[in-house]
């Protein structure tokens, strides 16, 4: 019975390590995707209210989320 409990404990321990590694890799993937969205060409500067915002959908003209004015690159 003691050996069975020991093997169960090892199995739980291995599962815990695998789960922790999966969490760490998922967090690293999130950090990478965050770095991609913070590309300098997606950062916009509003000339009306001097507000910095991120818009990844538009290339040439985007709407300021604060004052609603249009901004050109
Ligand atoms: Zn604005």
Description:
The protein has 73 residues and is α+β, with helices and mostly antiparallel strands. The chain has 2 domains: 1-37; 39-73. Helices cover 49% and strands 16% of the residues. It has one helix at 2-37; strands spanning 43-45, 52-54, 61-63, 70-72. The strands form 2 sheets. A two-stranded antiparallel ribbon has the order 1-2. Strands 3-4 form a two-stranded antiparallel sheet. The N and C termini lie far apart (72 Å). Zinc ion binds at residues 46, 48-49, 51, 64, 66-67, 69.
Oligomer: single chain
Strand % is 15-25%
Low-confidence stretches: none
Spatial strand order of the main sheet: 1-2
Spatial gap, N to C terminus: 72 Å
The topology string of helices and strands comes to HEEEE
Shape: rod-shaped
User: Ions, cofactors, ligands: which are bound?
Assistant: zinc ion
Number of helical segments?
1
Mean pLDDT: 85
How many domains? 2
Largest sheet: 2 strands, antiparallel
E-strand count: 4
